[in-house]
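pasting for the record
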Amino acid sequence: MSSQRLMAFGLRFYVVVFFGYLFLPLIIMAAATFNDSRFPTVTPWGGTTLRWFGELAADGSMWQALANSAIVALGVLVVAVPIGIATALFLNTVSSRAKPFLYALILSPLLTPGVIIGISTLIFWRQFGVSGGIFLTVLGQATFIAAYVMLMVTARLQRFDRTMERAALDLGASQWQMFRRILLPYLKPAILSAAVIAFLQSFENYNTTLFVVGYDTTLTVYIASKVRTGLTPAVNALGLILILVTVLLAVVYEVKRRRELTAQAAAREVAREA
């Protein structure tokens, strides 16, 4: 066997193993949803059933925890995305020797354990009479999720042609007009991607949330508490629904993106012919 064939075989084998490692747990979790057993497992198979979807529909506590997670994630978007964008724009204008220090300082929450962020957030805000709850959870998560947004927007800004800014200002545009009509459309893909990452990071966060959520319950905290008292395949049913919704949204986005690319290519073709 030649070296090229060996490399090709190794690459295919790696891809198969990687996707198997990635999707096999999800497949097993989805299969356990239809197993007629009170434990979330596929062995032994007790028969095919749909009753766990009914159990999920009747579990009001889980739906309340899911709603709280969605509220917290939306709140984190409102707080973290503007802060991350503003921080990226600020760092993009700094050219002094202090820039590496500022960059490291802003990224430090990403290197801090979530437990430390949760405890410090709770202790700090209790001095002002703010106890644990959804509001404090949003603040605690936004402290490090804003850094993710900053990183993604900064990566996009590094490829931005600054001469477009100067040209717009020379033509009489204000700073706000330049930002709204030139910079913001250019940053739109990065902002949307950062918003999705921020939502998912908030939705699945556990370490920080556990200390600041108070008497409210998010989905991750609720599932963790059910692990101690006994999980049922109703959790698998919820996971399967979330996976299907995620896949559906991804398909819709991809179809929309391809249609936009096709429309742009058609417009360029018409302009070329004209």
